[in-house]
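Q: Structure for this?
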Amino acid sequence: MFRATHKKYIGIYICIILLVGGAFLYFFNKKNESVVSVRIPVRPTPTPIAQINEKSWPSPDGKKTLVMKTKKSSPNMMTYSFFVTPSASAPAKPLLVKTLQTPFIMTIPFNAWSPDNQYFFLQEQNGTEKITFVYKTSGQMFSDGQYAHNVNMLFTEKEPKFFLEDVTGWAAPTLLIINTKTVDPDKSGPSFWFDVSKNSVTRLSTNFE
Amino acid sequence: MFQGHTVVPPIINLAMDTQDSKVLGETVPAGDKHIFVDLNTQTLYAFQGNTVIMNTLISSGKWGRTPTGDFRIWSKLRSTRMSGGSGNDAYDLPNVPFVMFFYNEKVSKERGFSFHGAYWHNNFGHAMSHGCVNMRTIDAEELFNWADPPTKNSTTYATAENSGTLVSICSQLYMQPESLPTCIE
């Protein structure tokens, strides 16, 4: 009879121990729930991508296109890349890459293309000041070893009495039309042809303003 | 030949011309077609109703004045030879593309004034012609395919049932919003 009673109490003691232990574990875990650490993936701050803008200008017959891509290389510097399509190489290689400091900008004039698509001219502008550069569409050098002709500089060397006011377009496949002012800036000067194949200047009897 | 210089005319193969050229004004609500030319700014505007569907630079008469007034297109030629002038201003130009002749009661058809592509110069925005309205070839082609009478063959004539598009050539134009411009002859 003593053993049966003992067995009964042992069972009760075991149950009590299990209950107390279980309760202890429950409350212990609940207390520590608020300090469980969770790993959150860190997303890196995206690196700003410089925006590339693009402008296309077709030749007058539509057979070629001059493409200008601009990219801001720093707060006050802009990089201009020029391509001609269709291109012999794939991907197309830029014919010209130029970086300018603001306020200078590069523009493609309406009459940029020569009538036979062999040349094109571009202008660097700062307000009313314009400098004209002419290039071969093939990307090859001119006979003087230069890839570009600075029309303003070449004209001034040959006609120092006149100020080049504007290059407006092409009279013929190699002839750029130049309008000028005289030394007195309020007076219109004569118009000239600038032959890009010979670096020669011809004064015209007709004004093309 | 133009201004004493030899020019190379484009090769035009009429058999290769397609009939399904994209036409100006396809997506614009229908309306009367009207071409305006501002001689002061050397600019051409093509209207469909009150909507501008083309705005581009042209070259009008330098050695021969382009007439002002209201005209009608009376014929369209895919290409033709043009020659004239004298001395240093003489010209002989084969395969002049996308030609549209216009006339009125004061300027007869025989005078030969037209819109057309010009492959011998690229100085649009400045007077360069002997009276015609020169355009870039790509612009002349678009205008040619849009203007009435609708192009049938390499040569198309306006008829009483299919009259040509109205053309107004003005010394100056005053543009107005959502309305046709005011033309000063």
